[in-house]
Amino acid sequence: MATASAFIDIPASADQVWQLIGGFDTLPDWLPFIPNSELSEGGRVRSLQTSDGAVVVERLELFDNAAKTYSYSILQAPFPAKDYLATLSVEARGEGARVTWSGKFEPVGVSDEEVVALFAGIYEGGLKALRANYPG
To answer: What is the mean pLDDT of residues 83-109?
Structure first.
């Protein structure tokens, strides 16, 4: 099992950040490379369209509003991985918040290093896009 993780500190309260990213259907609100998200199965499955037209289908596995965290698996995606489980979480850090995005997965047809670099890049790029919502 391979893992990747990234975090970023944001100059806003954990509550403010969670309000933006805590909904399972909110990726288009802060992630430019996901312009469209549609929920199904009572809000437990999201179908995402990437900016290059690819489709990613994910299932909400765990949601804890009080702890400001959720985990999801990938049901369908053009990624060279299986058994994917990722977690997005927000924690208070002084006056601001730290957002951590991490995942574990099994590479398919590529090396651990290649798939780790792929997901680390997605997490880092996504968190930088999130940070852009909070000038200061």
So the answer is: 97
The DSSP secondary-structure symbol of 43 reads: G
- Distances in whole angstroms, Cα of residue 92 to Cα of each of 8, 59, 72: 12, 26, 22
pTM, whole model, 2 decimals? 0.95
Taken in order of first residue, the domains within the chain and their CATH numbers are 2-131 (3.30.530.20)
Which residue type does 77 have?
A: A
Euclidean distance between CA atoms 105 and 119, whole angstroms? 10
- Here the tokens at position 11 are 């100059």
Beta strand 45-49 pairing with 36-40: antiparallel
Helices 14-21 and 112-131: crossing angle in degrees, nearest 10, is 110
Amino acid symbol at 118: L
Which pair of structure tokens corresponds to residue 31?
């992630």
Task: Determine phi and psi for 67, rounding to 5 degrees.
Answer: -85, -5
